Amino acid sequence: MKDRLNLTEGRITEKLLKLSLPIMGTSFIQMGYNMIDMIWVGKAGSKAVAAVGTAGFFSMACNGIYYDFKSRWRDKSSTKYWCK
After folding, report:
1. In the chain, % of residues over pLDDT 70
2. Residue 25: predicted pLDDT
3. Which of 3, 29, 63, 82 has the highest local Cβ count within 10 Å?
4. pLDDT for the residue 48
5. Distances in whole angstroms, Cα of residue 8 to Cα of each of 14, 15, 21, 72, 74
6. pTM of the model as a whole
7. What's the rounded Cα separation, in Å, for the pair 52 and 37?
8. Using an 8 Å Cβ cutoff, are 51 and 38 in contact?
9. Rounded distance, CA 57 to CA 66, Å?
């Protein structure tokens, strides 16, 4: 990891954009998968489409909650390690 992103130097907008683009890309891919699932299930009826849409929503919500707790745990553990 020779080429690390230093957020403390330079323009913050460029740094945040570089940091957020992969996250936004994976979110768009996940939404695309959900949309394709809804198209495939569309012939089964409106209840099936609603079920797929709801499952996609909960999948994205659970991912968000998971990554939030994961980052909080990582921050707490690194703080305990480095701030003795």
Report:
1. 85
2. 92
3. 63
4. 93
5. 12, 9, 19, 21, 20
6. 0.60
7. 7
8. no
9. 14
